[in-house]
C-alpha cells in the first residue's frame, strides 16, 4: 500500500530537482561573492555571449575576467554581496510610508496596554527605511535595545548587521522591528497575551511598508505572522506568503550566536531572501 505521504516518482524527481537547483544557486552565489564573474560552459560556441553570474550578457568579450584585487574577508559565515538593483521609489511614496509609520508610533504612545511596560526603559518601535524592500522581524527588545530604544543593537544585532551586509544591503536600507515593543523580563519569550496585544502594531508597520520580502527571525516572529505553532526548523526552507508578501523564516541571530553550526542553514535562507529581492 502506498502511504498518504509517499511521493510518486515524478514528485520525487521534482523535489530532487528543487534541491539541486537550490544547492546550485547557493554555490553560484557563494562563488560570485568570492569574485567569480562568469561561467564558461563546455561545448558553448561563444563564450562572449554567455550569461554572467550577474544575469547579464558577459561584457568581458570572452577574456578571462581579472581576479579581484583582494579576496573579500569572511565575517564568520557571512560575506558581503552586491546590492539588489534599486527600484526607483518616488519621494511621495517614501513620505507616505514614513507618515504612516509616524501615525503608528503616535498611536503606540507611552504604551501601557500589557504588563511588559512595567519593566521597560524605552518602547522599541523599530527603525530603518520606511520604503525598505526587506523587513526583518525579531522577537522583542533585549537589555541593550531597552536601554537605547533601538532594535537589534546588542550582540545579536551585530550578527544581524553582518547578515544584512551578506545579502548586499545596509542596515539603513532595511527596516527592523520586533513582535513586542517592550523588553520581556529576563529576555523570556513574550507571552501569548502580550503578543496578542502588541502584534497589531507590527501588522500595521508591515502594511505601511509593504516590503518586497519579510524575513522573520526565530520562532516567535515566524509563528506570530504565520499563525502557527510549528517549529522554526519546519518553517524554514519554504517561501511563505503573508498578506501577499513573500516571507522567509530563519533562525534568530541570538540562537546563531549559541549554535554556530546553524549559520550554514541561515545562509541558505538568506540566499532565498536575496533571490526574492532580485526577482
Ligand atoms: N532580539 C530580538 O528579538 N530583538 C531585538 O531587538 C534584539 C534582540
CATH topology of the largest domain: Uracil-DNA Glycosylase, subunit E
Can you tell me the CATH superfamily of the largest domain? Uracil-DNA glycosylase-like domain
Question: Tell me, what's the shape?
Answer: globular
- Give the averaged pLDDT, no decimals: 82
Computed over alpha carbons, the radius of gyration is: 21 Å
Our count of domains comes out at 2
What is the SS-derived class? Answer: alpha/beta
> What compounds are bound to the protein?
uracil
The side-by-side strand order for the widest beta sheet comes to 1-3-2-4-6-5
Count of helix runs: 9
CATH structural class of the largest domain? Alpha Beta
The second-level CATH architecture of the largest domain is 3-Layer(aba) Sandwich
Q: Note the gap between the termini.
A: 42 Å
Low-confidence stretches: 1-5, 40-76
Task: Write up what this structure looks like.
By secondary structure, the chain is α/β, with parallel strands linked by helices. It folds into two domains: 2-80, no CATH class; 91-278, 3-Layer(aba) Sandwich (Uracil-DNA Glycosylase, subunit E), CATH 3.40.470. It has nine helices and six strands; from the N terminus they run ααββααβαβααββαα. It has helices at residues 9-33, 91-108, 143-148, 155-166, 192-209, 219-226, 232-235, 253-258, 263-278; strands at residues 127-128, 134-138, 175-178, 213-217, 239-242, 245-250. It has a six-stranded mixed β-sheet, sandwiched between helices. Helix 2 (91-108) runs antiparallel to helix 5. The protein is globular. The two termini are 42 Å apart. The protein binds uracil. Uracil binds next to loops.
